[in-house]
Amino acid sequence: MLQDAILKLHPSDERNVLEQVLVASISLARIAMYGSSTDILYHVVEHGAQDMNVWLLFEEKYKSFCKFKSKYSNKQIGTTNSDVIIVNKDYASYIDDNPDLKVDVIYTDFPYTDQVPYLERNQLYRIWLESFYDSKYELTEEMLSQEIVQTDAEIRTEKKSIENYYKDIDNMFCHFAKVLNENGLVFFTLKLGKAKYFKTYIEIVNLARKNGLEYAYQIGVEKKDPTIRKQSAFTNTFTNEMIVVFYKLPENSKYWYIGNENYEFLMVKKVYSYLVHTKEYVTLSSAVTLVCNDLKSKYSYIAKEHDILKIKSLLQEYFKVDAGCIQIDNNQLYLDIEDTTDLYTKIYDLLPIYIRQLLDTKGKFILEDVYFELVNSLCDGNPKTIAQILDDESHQRDIEKLILNYCQKDGKYYVVIRAVHGKQHYNKECFYRFGEELILAKHPVLLEYLDQEYVKYSKIKESLTDDSKEHIRRRKEEVEDLLGDIMEALCYYEL
Questions:
Q1: Of 74, 271, 423, 429, which is the most buried if we count CB atoms within 10 A?
Q2: From the CB of residue 72, how many other CB atoms can be counted at a distance below 10 Å?
């Protein structure tokens, strides 16, 4: 009835507006599950169904449009003198057609693999408009090929694989990097499940870095009144929608990629392994030679002068260079490098850092804030580490137990660091360093960590043999103190 009434009007802007309002209401004018905000158009509801009132939906959309129009009616949309220019075009084609375009900010809703296939979801609108209004709304093959999506739709065979999806994401970041000014920002709206989409996010970060972008920070947009469906699925769906921010790195700060591989990470891994297994001092020049030989054997790449300067700079960033010799920097975490460094050790190293950062910046945090920080730290190398966390509920419980060693819980939020050196008074130094609750509880996560730290720092102590140098003597004393605290904590596991 609404459509018939609209078509009786003479062609005009007003008629177009009413048609737009009607189409925007269609997705909501359906039988839905009570208490759910799901936007799956073709969902057959078996239980708890509710029928939506078509006229009320239409009226609500019309009022929203009028509100929008009253706010922006003074804008000369589409002119060069306006504050706002609206272009209805594929982003890649628009960037390619405007090679001189430069922007400071890009904001978009991220393409969610197979979670939200927009064109398939919106085909209802296009079919409606094509049938009742104008044939120009036909869903074309060009539109289907341009969409960044993973789908098993029969007519979209090229969109079936996750590899093709990543290829499209790579192309997206490449285009963004072309138009972004240095230090320009990219804002993504993300709503992730705990496992599948976090694993995808790991690759997203990798592809962003390949194209000269780096993760900056994330902001949780809290929904105060989640639907019944979301409340019941909290173990698989995160509470907050996330605004994730990337920025364009300066040219001299970009990650070193060869093809799709982050060679910067591979280089550090190569040198780290060499330092661990050799008992002799390694000079900076010999480490550079090691990397150059690796480049030649793996990629048939002959390092040039600027490459050698880059290698030296990276080695000085990731390692400790003293008197021409290169050593492992004990202030670095070297994530996903040591084969013997397992999941628990990494988590135990990282969590106190993130907890303090989150409390300092936000005053409180929720569990997914920690997950985001873990992902952005652990995705430099093999993503299996974060996959372990997300696939195994016991690992998730371990994370929550570790957090509670530093915080107390207030509803869904974690607040206030409980054990801070100087505020809590213990009779054992190891309680300050590793946490009294974990030690007394003989927590297996901590035991794994202590065992591996003891082995690591014992090796470091063995290498600190030149007592004639002041800095080596000081470092040896630090290592000995740490080993003493580790042994003190381990004694509780033997009781």
A1: 271
A2: 11
Give the count of domains, the chain.
Answer: 4
Who contacts 425 (Cβ-Cβ below 8 Å, separation ≥6)? none
- Widest Cα–Cα separation across the chain: 96
339: DSSP letter: T
Residues 488, 494 contacting (CB under 8 angstroms): no
Residue finishing a domain among 86, 115, 132: 86
- Smallest Cα–Cα separation from 139: which of 154, 151, 125? 125
As a whole number of angstroms, the distance between CA 333 and CA 171 comes to: 32
Do 248 and 212 contact (CB within 8 A), yes or no?
yes
Q: What pLDDT is recorded for position 390?
A: 61
The boundaries of the domain holding residue 267 are: 257-327
DSSP tag of 381: S
Q: How confident is the model at residue 335 (pLDDT cuts 50, 70, 90)?
A: low
- Strand-pairing partners, residue 360, are none
Residue keyed to tokens 């922007």: 103
On whether both 362 and 457 belong to a single domain, the answer is yes
Q: How distant, in Å, are the alpha carbons of 73, 132, 183, 194, 308 from that of 462?
A: 75, 81, 44, 43, 31
Helices (H), 185-283: 196-210, 228-232, 263-277
| Residue at a domain's end among 235, 255, 275 | 255
**What is the rounded distance in angstroms from the CA atom of residue 178 to the CA atom of residue 337?**
32
**Which tokens sit at 437?**
């609750």
Q: Which pairing describes strands 413-417 and 364-365: parallel, antiparallel, or unpaired?
A: antiparallel
Around Cβ 485, how many Cβ atoms within 10 Å?
A: 19
334 vs 98: CA distance, rounded Å:
42
Strand partners, 258: 261
362: its two tokens? 């936000």
Query: What does the alpha-carbon distance between residue 28 and residue 55 come to, in Å, rounded to a whole number?
Result: 11
All residues at 6 or more sequence positions from 438 whose CB lies less than 8 Å from its CB, including other chains? 402, 405, 445, 446
The confidence score (pLDDT) of residue 48 equals 63
**Does residue 61 sit in the same domain as residue 29?**
yes
Q: What is the mean pLDDT of residues 258-275?
A: 88
- pLDDT band for 230, please (50, 70, 90 cuts): very low
Same domain, 167 and 297: no
The confidence band for 233, taking pLDDT boundaries of 50, 70 and 90, is: very low
- Locate 41 and state its tokens: 């158009």
Q: Which residues pair with 83 in a beta bridge?
A: none
Residue pair 334/361 in contact (Cβ under 8 Å)? The answer is no
pLDDT value of position 237: 47
